[in-house]
Amino acid sequence: MTGRPEPGDGGEAEGTAEVSDLFRALGRQIKAARERAGFSQKELGQRLGYGEEQISSVERGRRTPQPEFLAAVDELLECGGLLAVTAEDVERAKARRRVRHPEWFRDYAVLEAQAVELCYFANQAVPGLFQTESYARSVFASRQPFFDEESIEQRVTSRLARQEILVRWPPPTVSAIVQEAVLRQPFGGPKVQREQLGRLVELAHLRHVEIQVMPTLSEDHAGMGGPFTLLEIKGKPRMAYLEVQHTSRLITDPESVRVLAAKYGSIRGQALSTRESLRLVETMLGEL
């Protein structure tokens, strides 16, 4: 099993109190079982193929515990089926969860959940679908005008919830090109940067995810116009999404989308290959 995990700062998900209580209760049970077995969060993650930060998020009730995760933890920690049988409760809880998005973000959020293909070019921050909890919190904490603490926590929870599209079946095909400078910036501090780079290494090994890095020393760069997202929904024309300075725009005009798609193809050709990109990220991680 492999740990699996948005463009922009938008997207606020708020679950019902019952859903939140269920996830927190499951998290406490998982933590108790882990500690009883003598595993650290990192050790449990390594045994199951998940990142330490993901284990931490589940134990704190911030990330939805997926059925396959519950079954794997139950078996490894010898819980006698007590965790595995909660999978149906989790699925029902997910169905009850209410998701609220700012009006300017709502159309894109609905489309993103239906996408069969997503393509990101990111030169300001790591794409939201790839962000760790700590990195996302740093993003929202640095926003101006400032969010209060409650709003930060709500948006972090929202971002992690949206990442669930990467664990559904079938998952969307996701490709991302990230500017090298974004990865080298110690956003949130060295520990946050280390966790984020580690997450990217995990993601790069997923069959439905491709990550490329645009090197700083590249002499050709078709992405100077800024970040953008391409998304495709089965049976519908490809669309694009732009977000900058808390302003968003969903693009459906075929010609405008075609231009951005052609630009994405150029950027992809100018970036490092997926294999070269993975080696670079691993090297950066080793330097921290």
Q: What level of helicity do the residues show? A: 40-55%
Q: What distance separates the N and C termini?
A: 27 Å
Q: What is the radius of gyration computed over CA atoms, rounded to a whole number of angstroms?
A: 19 Å
Q: Given the structure, what is the number of helices? A: 12
- The share of residues in extended strands comes to 5-15%
Shape: globular
Largest sheet properties = 6 strands, mixed
- CATH T-level fold name of the largest domain: Endonuclease, Chain A
Which spans of ≥5 residues are poorly predicted at pLDDT below 50? Answer: 1-16
- Using the coordinates above, name the CATH class of the largest domain: Alpha Beta
Number of domains: 2
CATH architectural grouping of the largest domain: 2-Layer Sandwich
Mean pLDDT: 84
Q: Output the strand order for the largest sheet.
A: 5-4-3-6-7-8
Question: Helix-strand pattern, N to C?
Answer: EHHHHHEHEHHEHHEEEEHH
Structural class: alpha/beta
* Number of E-type strands: 8
Protein model, in words:
With 288 residues, the chain is an alpha/beta fold. It folds into two domains: 17-96, 434 Repressor (Amino-terminal Domain) (Orthogonal Bundle), CATH 1.10.260; 102-287, 2-Layer Sandwich (Endonuclease, Chain A). It is 50% helix and 14% strand. The strands form two sheets. The protein has a six-stranded mixed β-sheet, sandwiched between helices. A hairpin with a 6-residue loop joins strand 6 and strand 7. Helix 1 (17-37) runs antiparallel to helix 5 and helix 7 (133-141) crosses helix 8 (149-162). The longest helix has 21 residues, at 17-37.
